[in-house]
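Changelog-adjacent note: as of this version, every example in the card shows the full chain rather than a window. The one below runs 62 residues end to end.
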Amino acid sequence: MADPRTRPPVVHRLSRLTILLVIVALAVWVGTSALALTAVDWATTVVSDITATIWRPLTETS
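Full-length structure tokens:
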């Protein structure tokens, strides 16, 4: 295996860039996953509130 110190600087820079891009991609993926879960939680809350305020009184009176 070649010594990393003997590699050309361009290859060393590209490997650092690749690692940085992977970290950024993971951070974006985790962020969008958390945002999606928050949106699902918000939508569930809205639907349950609508059900509690509109649907239940209608079904109880009939």
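Structural remarks: The mean pLDDT is 81.
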